[in-house]
């Protein structure tokens, strides 16, 4: 969590130095940009906090319900899709003969999902109003301020200068590059196709968990991944 908060702080500083947007004037004129920043903080902090106690595939599947919720809101006739997603999440939550759900981890994942839905709506709006990457540069300082308490709340020694330099470099890859690319994507497409691309994340998360974290996926969990991805594609296909 401290590393996530520091990356947000470095990202905000780098983008402000690059874009130099009129921060205070813009936030006073468009206060919803502050909500975009809070959504960015909720996405990152909620997801990485959930990973402490939930398998990566399950955490990503729960957060995917944010984009899916936008699709279901616009097309409630496709009621089988949420049922498929729920079944998939239940399968992902079962492993090694026991339930893998932790109440605190699930709460953090739900926070990330809700923040993701707000993020998509507001980032799409920002792409229509703000020039270039100004929207991200304006929202990131709010995200950094919201995440700042975690820098001090977590115990342990502070990172050395070399580690801080690495975190500053990593902030270019995440979150700066994804946010800027997603801003450009949402300028050119509606939220539905954007959500289709996001639907691949549970499969990638389970694969990454198996390759990098040693989290072996069971047949039931792989079925759960397939159900969540199928639900997202089904819910979003009619909106594309």
Structure explained in plain terms:
This protein has 240 residues and is an all-alpha fold. Helix content is 79%, strand content 2%. It has 12 helices and 2 strands. The protein has helices at 2-19, 23-29, 32-50, 56-74, 80-92, 103-129, 134-147, 149-153, 161-188, 191-198, 201-212, 219-237; strands at 94-95, 98-99. Strands 1-2 form a two-stranded antiparallel ribbon. Strand 1 (94-95) and strand 2 (98-99) form a beta hairpin. Helix 4 runs antiparallel to helix 5. The protein is globular, with a radius of gyration of 18 Å. The two termini are 36 Å apart.
What structural class results from the helix and strand content?
A: mainly alpha
**What series of H and E elements makes up the topology?**
HHHHHEEHHHHHHH
Q: What is the strand content?
A: under 5%
Regions with little confidence, pLDDT below 50 for 5+ residues: none
What gap, in angstroms, lies between the N and C termini? 36 Å
The major β-sheet equals: 2 strands, antiparallel
Calculate the mean pLDDT score and round it.
79
The helix fraction, in percent, is over 70%
Strand arrangement, largest sheet? Answer: 1-2
Assembly level:
single chain
β-strand number = 2
Shape by Cα distribution: globular
Q: Output the radius of gyration.
A: 18 Å
Number of helices: 12
